[in-house]
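Encode chain A's predicted structure.
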Amino acid sequence: MKRKTSNLKFIPGDKILIVLLTISMIFLPHCSGNRIERITGFEVKAVQLSKEIPFIKLHMKNGDVYIFDNWKMDQKENVVLGNGNHLDMNRQLIDQGEFKLSIKDVALAETNVIKNSAAVTALTFATVITGIFTVVCITNPKACFGSCPTFYANNGNEYIVQSEGFSSSISPCLEEKDIDALFRIKPESENFEIQLRNEAYETHVIRKANVLALPKKKGNRVFAAMDDKFYEAGNLIGASEVVGEEGDCSEKLCSFDGVERFSPADSNNLAEKEIIEISFNNITEGNKGLVIASRQTLLTTFLFYQGLAYMGSSAGYFLANLERNSEEVKKIIDQPRKELGNIEVFVETVSGDWKKAGEIGEHGPISTDIKIVPLNNLNTSSSIKIKLRMTKGLWRIDYLALADLKGKVDPVIISPSDAFPKLTGYNSNVTELLTNEDSVLVTFPGDKYFLQYKLPEDFENYELFLESQGYYLEWMREEWLAEENPAKVYQMFFNPQQFFKDLAPQFKKVEAEMEETFWSSKYVYP
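Encoded structure for chain A:
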């Protein structure tokens, strides 16, 4: 191969689609229900050369990059073959010609076209999309609808959203488990159904979607804590007073009814904190827990999309580094998260000091989840005073209550017993994909499944939760790419305190209209 000294002319950013290659994969020629095997290294079960995919960019684990204008995968040798350019880690051209690369050496791939072909559906991906925004989204692309997998259950009248799974798992190395209460759902029989949807321009990789059934006595409820422990609780009482900066807001928080208390973000610092003071009177003795129903505002949605916009056409390089150095990069990306923080719970002691009892922090703006914070070693008197400390403009709180803790309970894990694909017409064995430890279900925009579960015969005596596990990949929007700014990316990760101050004026310009824009731009087929 002839060595070139000139720099490669890069493909324009508005043509780039990010594609993450998972640790291992099997190609299936359909747009959903794909199976990805969890084995050592990569395994490719098909040979694919698609004219619909004019180029692919491969980020290697050693930092090099290959850009091919045509390519194919060889299942026998487990390699990618292509014709194009080889660049070093500094993006200087090394060689041009034909190359043969082992799949196991690839950290991440990018391409510029997405089609429902065998090659693309085998690669879980995020992409640049153009021409499919609704009118309301054009003026405020950072408020466009996005979600992780959303799960709906029937409340007796209609299907209502009850969970958005693993909201912070934005790449394979960040895969995690998420537990959400099905608090407002009362099954009518032991045959229980949940609807799983992909409602955004994202790829969802779902490893589990189990129902957890927790036994309870009549009149009691069961709540999950942040450590995934479950507590049976009874005698829930509302606060006698809840005071924020706006004054008493206890009426908004006395029931789980969709009437939420929230505040606008600070004009000078998006990480500025606020305090809510809560009083409970006429308290009986015994172990207590604070019940909080909450969801995030669209501040985190804006920050996530703004971060991707600042990465711009280099987002592939950032994501490749995340996959190459997951533990090191996880610590870096946690810095802005820690700066924003969760909802912290403090309890007043007998001496008048404030002691932190715990915190809750359900990520995501779509589904309100309900959690409990045990108030351990509480010196119970006739009244209890509690403070919540949280970032202004970040949380919507629907319900607060004090509960008597009855003890910990263990769940019965119920995997889906059957499933019915909708929209795509593809008859994959979705149940097997969600119950086999070596498989995952990959869904694309518009995919919808009805998952069937068999509850215990005495199902009325159980509290239900949804346990989901996986990760998702956000598709890049063309409208974001004009804001590419590596210096801002560096500031976001290494100086988040200043980052949130600098970004405050930009967010405040769109904050008031974000909710309307977000829900108005919910996914529909273009």
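The CA atoms of residues 186 and 337 lie 35 Å apart.
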